[in-house]
Amino acid sequence: MRKSLLLTCSILLLWSCQNQAQYNKTKNKTMDTQAAISAETIYQFKVKDLYGKEFDFASLKGKKILIVNTASECGLTPQYKDLEAIYEKYKDLNFVIVGFPANNFGSQEPGSNEQIAKFCQLNYGVTFPMMGKISVKGSDMDNVYKFLTQKSKNGLQDSEVEWNFQKYLINEQGKLIKVLSPRVLPTDAAIVGWINDKS
């Protein structure tokens, strides 16, 4: 009788644990789905470009967007060349790059907006949209980067900008879909494959 009671209790306990685990799994999946649905989009933002003109992200609806924080005096600065190359190759296929100069890492972007514009044009022939210099981390982080780095806003994940030339991929609906480290080259398959993916 005692063994039977212990067996029954064990079975009930196991059943209860399995049900709780299943409930937690379903709850977490539901919360992730709700977060993705209620996530903000990049289209809510208006910023100033390097020349002081307003740039409205809503004008990019229907395009794939690569957002990158840049610097003129970084070891990764030659990535400008590849960024410009993929922009030139794919800009007519609903793809755009938006650069944000930032001086957050090693003071490697010390110049003014005017100096940055000259540097980009003279050294790399940059034609993709470049915004005015901002902060991409810390207490003065720009609102665009708050969106990119906070799951509560982007619905995908929390992240931190590690260094210059970190890349954020935004889909045609204005949603963040991937974060790529600074050392992932613009010509990497993770980026080029995504640009070419029509699904």
- The value of Rg in angstroms is 23 Å
What is the name of the CATH architecture of the largest domain?
3-Layer(aba) Sandwich
How are the strands ordered across the major sheet?
A: 4-3-5-6
Q: Which descriptor suits the 3D outline?
A: elongated
The span between the termini is: 62 Å
Provide the β-strand percentage band.
Answer: 5-15%
The total beta strand count reads 6
CATH class of the largest domain: Alpha Beta
Low-confidence stretches: none
Largest sheet: 4 strands, mixed
CATH third-level topology of the largest domain: Glutaredoxin
Detail the topology: elements first, then pairings:
Elements lengths: L1 H37 L7 E3 L5 E3 L7 E7 L8 H12 L4 E7 L11 H12 L18 H7 L1 H4 L12 E4 L5 E5 L8 H8 L3
Parallel strand pairs: 3-4
Antiparallel strand pairs: 1-2, 3-5, 5-6
Description:
This protein is an alpha+beta fold. Helices cover 40% and strands 15% of the residues. It folds into 2 domains: 1-38; 42-196, Glutaredoxin (3-Layer(aba) Sandwich), CATH 3.40.30.10. The radius of gyration is 23 Å and the shape is elongated. The mean pLDDT is 89.
